[in-house]
């Protein structure tokens, strides 16, 4: 008898987001919903390597003390257009959301904004943060570098024109992963479990 094949389980995006938020909230994560939203965003765009499959890794980082679920990022503003976010070990989405908010605020005030993040762990799909800037009406360019899976550099660019945005996500890595290059997102109304 052939081995049984696992069937795919479809879960509505909102239900998945709520479940993942609950997992991170139970561990005392400062902004559990932000982490969940970033991970589910990746899944909805077919970037499963940066989606909810990362939850066990985040929990492992908490257990090993390599990340602090309750960390609150702090910001230094050496210049009006520059923000330096110290994550203090916070999960990547918590730190990166703060960086995007600071960069967008600086861009509105000065015409350009720059934010850097230090002291964080896995950020998830970098295009998520660039998309946030675009949604705020600010063109964005996001770069992340890591050594976790071998030397790699990930860049995302979002342009905004006439109320529409375009996102290009590029990964340069020594290792081949499931990450995407310029993948079109699925409809926000049709994620996994919603006919998408």
3D architecture notes:
It contains five helices and six strands, in the order αααββαβαβββ. With 196 residues, the chain is α+β, with helices and mostly antiparallel strands. It has one domain (13-173): 2-Layer Sandwich (Ribosomal Protein S8, Chain: A, domain 1). The strands form two sheets. Strands 1-2-3 form a three-stranded mixed beta sheet, covered by helices on one side. The chain has a three-stranded antiparallel beta sheet with strand order 4-5-6, with helices on one face. Helix 1 (13-26) runs antiparallel to helix 2, helix 2 (32-44) crosses helix 4 and helix 4 runs parallel beside helix 5. The radius of gyration is 17 Å and the shape is globular.
Query: How far do the termini sit from each other?
Result: 33 Å
Work out the radius of gyration.
17 Å
**Mind telling me the CATH class?**
Alpha Beta
Average predicted confidence as pLDDT: 81
Structural class: alpha+beta
Tell me about the largest β-sheet.
3 strands, mixed
Strand order of the largest sheet: 1-2-3
CATH overall fold name: Ribosomal Protein S8, Chain: A, domain 1
Number of helix segments? 5
The overall strand count is: 6
The residue fraction in helices comes out at 25-40%
């Amino acid at each position: 008898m052939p081995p049984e094949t696992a069937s795919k389980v479809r879960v509505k995006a909102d239900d998945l987001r709520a479940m993942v938020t609950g997992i991170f909230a139970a561990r005392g994560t400062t902004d559990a919903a932000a982490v969940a939203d970033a991970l589910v965003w990746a899944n909805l765009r077919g970037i499963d390597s940066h989606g909810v499959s990362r939850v066990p890794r985040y929990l492992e980082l908490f257990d090993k003390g390599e990340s602090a679920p309750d960390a609150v990022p702090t910001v230094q503003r050496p210049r009006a257009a520059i923000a330096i976010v110290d994550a203090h070990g916070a999960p990547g989405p918590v730190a990166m959301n703060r960086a995007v908010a600071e960069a967008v605020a600086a861009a509105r005030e000065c015409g350009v904004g720059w934010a850097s993040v230090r002291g964080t762990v896995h950020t998830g799909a970098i295009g998520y943060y660039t998309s946030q800037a675009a949604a705020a009406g600010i063109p964005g360019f996001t770069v992340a570098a890591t050594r976790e899976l071998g030397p790699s550099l990930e860049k995302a660019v979002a342009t905004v024109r006439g109320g529409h945005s375009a996102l290009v996500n590029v990964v340069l890595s020594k290792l081949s992963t499931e990450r995407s290059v310029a993948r079109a997102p699925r409809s926000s109304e049709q994620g996994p479990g919603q006919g998408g």
